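During the second year of the project, the team shifted from modelling isolated chains to modelling whole assemblies. The rationale, set out in the original proposal, was that interfaces cannot be judged from single-chain predictions alone. As a representative example for this report, we include one of the complexes processed in the last quarter. Its constituent sequences, exactly as entered into the pipeline, are reproduced here:
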Amino acid sequence: AQRVTQPEKLLSVFKGAPVELKCNYSYSGSPELFWYVQYSRQRLQLLLRHISRESIKGFTADLNKGETSFHLKKPFAQEEDSAMYYCALGGATNKLIFGTGTLLAVQP
Amino acid sequence: GAVVSQHPSWVICKSGTSVKIECRSLDFQATTMFWYRQFPKQSLMLMATSNEGSKATYEQGVEKDKFLINHASLTLSTLTVTSAHPEDSSFYICSASRRGTEAFFGQGTRLTVV
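Output from the structure prediction step:
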């Protein structure tokens, strides 16, 4: 069965500190992993996807098939990074299964 | 990026009535649209997958007679909550995509059943 696990509901860090939002997945096929972000009062938007291997707003995520993980990282958090982050798993059908989300709070 | 628009953004209805929510892809043709439900402070729960011109595929536990989905064109999908009850109050979100591309999300519709 497809499943996405984000163990942390809330992650609070100080500005300038490193950030790692954890995501683990369960999928029998070839997964597509995504990170979506939802800023306060805005719609969900794509942050990055594993196949593009790009860095967006300083965030990176590496797919580790051995550990079935796709953790989101940023070396130096900014206050504007405060938002809800969702890890999502996609498959052949294009549908996305979302994790429960992690609220990132960056303190000044 | 592509724009997906939902209408209405919020609606209040009486218990027992039906409510229709529209999801439109404004500047692209969406082969697939998805409907999600989000409870307060919780994640998005996929309700159904809607492909243009065919019946929607519902996730386990979602009542297809309760949540009617129609995907009449490549730019429009509708979700009708039939005989709504207070427990149907929620935030409903749609997304639209073309095969092989990212999904774009609507702004969501807040449904309150009184």
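Chain B touches chain A at residues 1, 32, 34, 36, 42-46, 49, 93, 95, 97, 99-100, 102-103, 105-108 (CB under 8 Å). Chain B is about 0% helix and 55% strand.
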